[in-house]
Amino acid sequence: MLIRPIQMDDLDEMVELATAAGIGVTSLPSDRARLLQRIATSVDSFAGKRSHADADYLFALQDADKQHMLGVCGVKASVGLDEVWYNYRVSQTVTASKEMHLHKRMQTLHLSNDMTGATEICSLLLHPDCRKSARRRPYGSFLSKCRFLFLAAYAEQFDSRVFAEMRGQSDDDGHSPFWEALGEHFFHFEFPQADYLSGTGNKAFIAELMPRHPIYTVFLNEAARDCIAQVHRDTLPALRMLEAEGFRKNNMIDIFDGGPCVEVELASIAAVERTQVATLRELATVRPYLELPATDAAETAVMVAPDPSAIRALDLPFAMADFRVRLTDLATLDAMTGAEGDKAAHDGLFDMLLSAELQAAAASISLHWLDMPLLMTRLKPVLNSRHGIQLDRNTHLEQVDD
Amino acid sequence: MIVVRPVQAGDQPGIEKLIFESEAPISSLPTDRDWLGRRIEQSVQSFRHNGELEGTERFIFVLYDEDHHEVLGTAGLSTVAGAEVPFYNYRLDEIIHASKAHGVYNPVQILSLAHDLSNATLLSSFTLATRMRLSEYRDLLSRARLLYMYHCRHRFQRRCIVEIQGVAVNDGRYPGTSPFWENVGRHFFDIDFMEADQHVATLGKTFIAELMPATPLYLPLLHEEARAVIGLPHEQAAANMRFLQSQGFELSQYVDIFDAGPVLEAPTERLVKGQQVVSKQVRLSAGASRSGSGGAAMGAAFIAMNGDLTNFRAALVHMTEGLGDVQRIRKQDADALGLAENDTIFYSRIKPGQAAYELS
């Protein structure tokens, strides 16, 4: 398994993926021209040819053996700067009068541009084959989490606020109760049509046709009210995963389907907190601890954290386009850990085995990793035998806890 | 003799009886005794043209049967609708959501809380005993206000408005409830329409209005039952509405915030001119001493007035209009109007068939 920046020749597989995803993944409509444009933007963004306002990164999850694209995920450096970004903010409005012994709390929706400037993680798509296979299920989580390594590595390119818009509720025919009770009154299109238009760059235009004054949700029907800040059932696992990373609903919802927006401070993302970044040059200082052989740079490395205070001073000489994350597959994992069929161990190891592929010259290599105490206990023999790495367990456990 | 005159303190029990009989709620005439007493006193002071009230007078006229000492109706006239507090309505506006590039042109109606009618002159508090509804006395009572404005036009505003009660449906309780209230106001107050109406009587309409959402309501989001009654009159008020329209009022873009009943408006100038008031010198007619109704039925029906701003009197008078500067009227009519020989009488014709509006 390999995560890499998307390339122009991924277009066919990208169209296939988007078609398989269906309605509701607003940011990736199965429109070939539109997808081509997004891929081109991504290629430019990785090459540093895009400004902060319109940098848009797409990653492909590639099956290393079959050379197939199994999924895609994206990060937008900042939303709302090139085109206006709209949400409804779910708010409370109180009607109160002491004389009438009245105190009534009402839910209101306010059209808002509050997310403007924030970094969005978006466009997570996994091939249906991967979603169905229990054995392959962690790939979704891997695909999503690789973005946090990226955010950690290039934090200065992103906003401190990171958010995701989660797909809202709709039935199998693509009917969205929220849209039908609200948006459709103002924009006489059915949801799939509106959703498609939205994904093809017309979202701000549609938002501008929507009500600008606050909406008291008592005027919506019950089915629509029940959609507010609720995710589509297919999106529930993704929501749980993001919640585990520290994302929380922030009272913003999608103006179309009422799906929630979840938000977190970039530095507080669990995976970011656990990620440490270093160049090999800097690693020379910790090499004695790790006993990392200087010649082993071209291979995958699994690293434990050096002193965190030293890491903050490091810079990243790497070009973004060289960003790679490799996931060791389950068979290798079993072989490495001897933990065949041990699901708990596998789940934990997925977090640990996200690692950078070291491609470049030793002087400009960047490593990204997630460290956990388990890593050392499980991988100590592996690292020792394969890479000749001797881990001083006591030393590094202290650092992990730091 | 039945006359229209300014309300007096002694009229209060009669007014309370009238309100009790009323089929449509009269929120501007409170059933609360103290409150009503204050309204009457305010009117008394207004007719005296007490300087302190200048510009904020609230007049109440009563239709009074002098023979049986009975109040048969009331009609209110306020110099400005929002004298002490803003006068709230919903204004029905249309906003266009459009994009030529995308072929979208979508007009959306909204109701906005507005108090821009606050400085209009307001006709209100119209009640009439049930048995008088099919008579010309309704014309007399209603038009008396327009005729009073004729006499002191400068005291009133350029624009004149009147609120018509909105649609109510029978919910088993008197006087029923408003579909608009059930789908709008109730969400914010959790109380029955009648209860809300009582709060209006005691706390004032403005008080309630200011608890309503300050931001516009989108019509497409309202329940169809509520949408269906916006700007429609209560069936008991429909005839009165048509009568007012015959006097020059037109539907405005405003509706009531509780029941969405229509607000009619007209330029005051048009209303006053439409009365075509004629003034002449009184000549008591020779037939004045004749008893019985035979003489009373002679001639056409007019609303006659004494033109006195403090002791205003108006009555239905049947007479034959002369060509000269003098007008002969019966002595009992002159007495009822407080007029004597050589005084100036003002009158306005009742158009034949006008009372038929009541028959609907």
From TrEMBL, chain A:
<dbReference type="InterPro" id="IPR016181">
    <property type="entry name" value="Acyl_CoA_acyltransferase"/>
</dbReference>
<keyword id="KW-0056">Arginine metabolism</keyword>
<protein>
    <recommendedName>
        <fullName>Arginine N-succinyltransferase</fullName>
    </recommendedName>
</protein>
<dbReference type="InterPro" id="IPR007041">
    <property type="entry name" value="Arg_succinylTrfase_AstA/AruG"/>
</dbReference>
<keyword id="KW-0012">Acyltransferase</keyword>
<dbReference type="Pfam" id="PF04958">
    <property type="entry name" value="AstA"/>
</dbReference>
<keyword id="KW-0808">Transferase</keyword>
From TrEMBL, chain B:
<protein>
    <submittedName>
        <fullName>Arginine/ornithine succinyltransferase subunit alpha</fullName>
    </submittedName>
</protein>
<keyword id="KW-0012">Acyltransferase</keyword>
<keyword id="KW-0056">Arginine metabolism</keyword>
<dbReference type="Pfam" id="PF04958">
    <property type="entry name" value="AstA"/>
</dbReference>
<dbReference type="InterPro" id="IPR007041">
    <property type="entry name" value="Arg_succinylTrfase_AstA/AruG"/>
</dbReference>
<keyword id="KW-0808">Transferase</keyword>
<dbReference type="InterPro" id="IPR016181">
    <property type="entry name" value="Acyl_CoA_acyltransferase"/>
</dbReference>
